[in-house]
Recover the amino acids of this structure.
């Protein structure tokens, strides 16, 4: 197998192929089926990569390396390591779930919609697998373009402005990162290719790791890279694009954005930022943690005040991402392990949240918490499933998020007690607003809006049940995920020490 | 050498065509045939290094793979321009043959400006480029705006040519070698002699004028807006990059050793150009005028090559020439088919003409500099050159922030194309023909190929 095609190849080309088929599909049903089928195949491929994780045996299966721009020292180099496997699995799992849950929504131009969705998946897969800086940058931008078109074409009323703000923010960030990449590139060693030709510098990840940079340069470049990742995550004060974009995008795209795309920022920090600049000053690290903690508390407070359900979920997502970012920069083995786990969990949970929000909005037409009341009476199954997802969102024991947040907090506590304590306030507030929403929307007396609502349809039920099962499974037995990313954590720690 | 002579000869041929051929569409085919021959002969010269013509030029013209490659790119872009917009040229007025003749003369000037080895040849090259352009700008004789643009362009252009000539005279006077050759201008490493300094400043001003760098850009929007759209397309692409090429060639050979003394001036000009081009483009309602300001903004990015003046900068300027010309020619080609030149005029283009909408989007993405398009590679090389130069790192950061601003106005057009509804017919009835569509596909394909594999262009330099 490794000689003919490899896992990274499949994970890039299958979505691209699916996109082509979707674009030429004539009917809505065809486009939908193609997207669904292909995303299931991709999920199957992604799951099977887990069984070929042994690099000494299966290295040919897991890495693809073509010479691309010989003269610059850039290769098309993609591959799967533990971290890549985790995140490609997340995006391979996310897309079928999204298609399943939104199969009832009717999109204008369905062929284009599903085609662009599959293009997005290809871009995301590329980001998570790139081992060459130029390849990484290409995919990083390419994941953005289809999302821009998706959100601007199928979103809410103010979609064009909201999406454009999102685009300009991230575009500016990635251009700054591009300068950083160029600067590091010009300080790398020569690259020798298989046929003996030599380029003066190299874009490969390993030569980026060994680039000779003075501590001052590292600090400056750290800021350039971090801006790109911080905007993508987003971290306070770069988060202003996010609630609007989540609110205005079609829900399927919001799920991609919040469930999978924000992980690009965290992934960038783990794969690129910290290992390339290990000698960055402690002040900068503290600064980042400080911003993250502000993110947590601020976003939680804003979420508590929200009446709009979508915005509430959006702000709650900022708080969760802030915690993950802080935990990475605590640079403790436990906390980084927790981040790995939580990246996956957060992706699943937030997609679940959005599915429920979408169902509520579609069935009642209401966007505000204050308009809703007593949904539990008319939709009991939805209520139970949502309750579990809500519990996972506030990280109750037995749910998946508990393990992750516990690990992250203990790492953060080792780093600085006060920071951990302040971040903890955010978690308490998250319980307040989540449960408050559950109580107001689902319980209480039935009102005119919620009276006529019928319960979830089969597709939505299936998607939610899968999510709930995953929540419990990982909550009770997180070991497989921890094993999966052990090597990534150790590599990262080796670079820091 | 081939390109210079053949394009001048073919210009004369086209003039006679204008006299003897009554058919309106025939000159286009003759022009395409002639240009194809010139390109082939030029590529042969690029590969073998031998010219078909041997004249005693006293080394006033010097070719190497770098400038021959540039000429090939310029000629190739012109060919694409003929094929895409040739039928629009026929619509400008009755003198079709003459329009093509003038364009061939401009190409002759481009070839001279790319290969000059003395200051005199530089002057001649720039003038041969400029004079036909004055005529082309005013070729829509009944249109007041076109007349105004031509007059304005001529007056300003003549003035700047005067300054260029004066600068050349100062350099000659201040040169102890008493030589016009660009590599024999002797300047010590210490402080510049006054004559040289004044001459350099004058030449800098005149060349900045020619490439419409701020603060010498004031003619650009009016001229580009007033000229017939097909000729704006030619002026703002091939002619402009030729000016840049001459600019860089001159400053590399003549003043390269004292780069640290004039580099700061370039920094100021670059920042001013980026600022004025990008910020003003944001406020335009007419797409044609917006493209004029966007061409100023793109000039700001090309100035980074002059700032850096290293190998990457040379490769970058080649890529930029190709990427910028292709995207702009393609976009102007679509613009000529539009009913209404305002941004609202683009509303709903994708619905009425899906292919045109898609192609326009790719062109605009390329101008913005999104990966996978040629525009990204060219900006990438420019940034790399500027970072490698090592001075004034903040200039690079400012440049990319302006690039982010440029996304604003390019994407406004994309938004109109895809996300807004048309209220009236978007394109002129029956104007979009099948050959036009095929050419658009070709240009899109070229942009994507260069975007993925830029060595297809710069690889030729190192044969």
């Amino acid at each position: 197998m490794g000689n003919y095609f490899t896992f990274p190849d499949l994970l890039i080309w299958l979505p691209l192929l699916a996109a082509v088929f979707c674009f030429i599909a004539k009917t809505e049903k065809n486009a939908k089926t193609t997207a669904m089928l292909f995303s299931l195949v991709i999920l199957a491929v992604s799951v099977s990569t887990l069984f070929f994780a042994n690099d000494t045996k299966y290295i040919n299966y897991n890495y693809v390396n073509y010479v691309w721009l010989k003269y610059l020292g850039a290769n098309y180099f993609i591959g799967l390591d533990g971290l890549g496997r985790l995140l490609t699995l997340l995006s391979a799992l996310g897309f079928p779930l999204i298609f399943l849950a939104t199969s009832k929504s009717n999109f204008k131009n369905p062929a284009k919609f599903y085609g662009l969705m599959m293009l997005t998946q290809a871009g995301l897969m590329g980001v998570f697998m790139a081992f060459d800086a130029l390849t990484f940058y290409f995919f990083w931008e390419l994941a953005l373009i289809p999302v821009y078109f998706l959100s601007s074409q199928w979103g809410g009323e103010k979609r064009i402005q909201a999406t454009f703000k999102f685009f300009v923010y991230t575009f500016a960030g990635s251009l700054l990162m591009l300068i950083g990449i160029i600067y590091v590139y010009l300080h790398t060693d020569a690259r020798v290719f298989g046929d003996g030709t030599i380029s003066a510098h190299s874009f490969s990840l390993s030569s980026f790791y060994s680039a000779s940079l003075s501590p001052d340069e590292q600090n400056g470049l750290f800021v350039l890279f971090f801006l790109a990742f911080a905007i993508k995550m987003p971290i306070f004060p770069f988060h202003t694009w996010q609630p609007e974009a989540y609110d205005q995008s079609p829900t399927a795209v919001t799920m991609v954005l919040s469930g999978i795309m924000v992980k690009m920022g965290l992934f960038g920090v783990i794969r690129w930022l910290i290992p390339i600049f290990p000698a960055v000053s402690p002040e900068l690290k503290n600064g980042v943690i400080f911003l993250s903690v502000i993110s947590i508390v601020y976003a939680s407070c804003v979420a508590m005040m929200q009446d709009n359900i979508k915005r509430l979920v959006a702000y709650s997502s900022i708080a969760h991402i802030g915690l993950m970012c802080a935990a990475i920069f605590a640079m403790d083995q436990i906390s980084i392990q927790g981040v790995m786990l939580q990246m996956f969990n957060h992706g699943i949970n937030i997609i679940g949240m959005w599915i429920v929000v979408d169902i509520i909005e579609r069935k009642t037409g209401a966007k505000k918490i204050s308009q809703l009341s007593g949904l539990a009476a008319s939709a009991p199954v939805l209520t139970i499933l949502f309750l579990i997802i809500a519990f996972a969102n506030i990280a109750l024991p037995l749910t998946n998020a508990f393990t992750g947040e516990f690990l992250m907090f203990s790492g953060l506590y080792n780093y600085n007690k006060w920071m951990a304590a302040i971040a903890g306030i955010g978690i308490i507030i998250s319980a307040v607003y989540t449960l408050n929403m559950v109580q107001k929307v689902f319980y209480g007396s039935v009102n005119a809006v919620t009276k006529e609502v019928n319960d979830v349809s089969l597709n939505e039920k299936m998607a939610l049940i899968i999510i709930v099962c995953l929540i419990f499974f990982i909550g009770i037995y997180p070991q497989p995920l921890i094993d999966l990313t052990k090597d990534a954590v150790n590599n990262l720690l080796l670079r820091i020490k | 050498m081939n390109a210079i002579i053949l394009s001048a000869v073919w210009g004369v041929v086209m003039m006679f065509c204008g006299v003897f051929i009554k058919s309106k569409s025939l000159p286009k085919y003759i022009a395409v045939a002639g240009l194809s021959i010139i390109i082939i002969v030029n590529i042969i010269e690029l590969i073998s290094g031998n010219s078909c013509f041997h004249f005693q030029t006293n080394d006033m013209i010097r070719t190497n793979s770098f400038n021959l490659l540039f000429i090939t790119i310029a000629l190739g872009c012109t060919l694409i321009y003929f094929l895409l917009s040739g039928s629009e040229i026929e619509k400008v007025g009755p003198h079709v043959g003459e329009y093509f003749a003038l364009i061939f003369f401009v190409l002759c000037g481009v070839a001279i400006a790319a290969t000059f080895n003395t200051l005199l040849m530089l002057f001649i090259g720039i003038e041969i480029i400029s004079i036909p352009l004055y005529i082309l700008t005013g070729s829509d004789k009944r249109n007041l705006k076109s007349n105004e643009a031509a007059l304005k362009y001529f007056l300003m252009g003549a003035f700047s040519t005067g300054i260029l000539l004066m600068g050349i005279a100062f350099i000659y006077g201040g040169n102890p070698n008493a030589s016009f050759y660009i590599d024999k201008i002797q300047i010590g490493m210490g402080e510049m002699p006054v004559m040289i300094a004044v001459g350099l400043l004058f030449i800098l001003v005149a060349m900045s004028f020619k490439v419409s760098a701020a603060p010498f850009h004031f003619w650009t929007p009016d001229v580009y807006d007033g000229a017939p759209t097909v000729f704006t397309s030619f002026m703002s692409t091939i002619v402009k990059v030729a000016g840049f090429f001459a600019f860089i060639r001159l400053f590399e050979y003549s003043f390269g050793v004292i780069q640290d003394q004039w580099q700061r001036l370039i920094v100021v000009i670059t920042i001013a150009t980026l600022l004025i081009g990008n910020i003003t483009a944001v406020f335009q309602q007419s797409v044609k005028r917006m493209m004029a300001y966007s061409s100023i903004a793109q000039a700001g990015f090309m100035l980074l090559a002059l700032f850096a003046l290293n190998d990457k900068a040379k490769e970058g300027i080649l890529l930029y020439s190709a990427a910028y010309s292709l995207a702009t020619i393609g976009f102007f080609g679509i613009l000529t088919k539009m009913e209404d030149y305002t941004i609202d005029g683009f509303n709903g283009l994708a619905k009425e003409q899906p292919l045109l909408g898609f192609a326009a989007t790719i062109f605009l993405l390329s101008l913005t500099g999104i990966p996978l398009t040629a525009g990204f590679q060219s900006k990438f090389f420019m940034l790399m050159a500027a970072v490698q130069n090592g001075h004034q790192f903040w200039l690079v950061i400012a440049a990319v922030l302006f690039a982010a601003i440029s996304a604003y106005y390019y994407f406004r057009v994309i938004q109109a194309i895809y996300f807004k509804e048309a209220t009236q017919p978007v394109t002129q009835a029956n104007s979009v023909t099948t050959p036009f569509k095929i050419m658009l596909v070709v240009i899109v394909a070229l942009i994507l190929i260069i975007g993925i594999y830029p060595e297809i262009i710069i690889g030729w330099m190192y044969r």
Summary: Residues 319-497 of chain A form one domain.
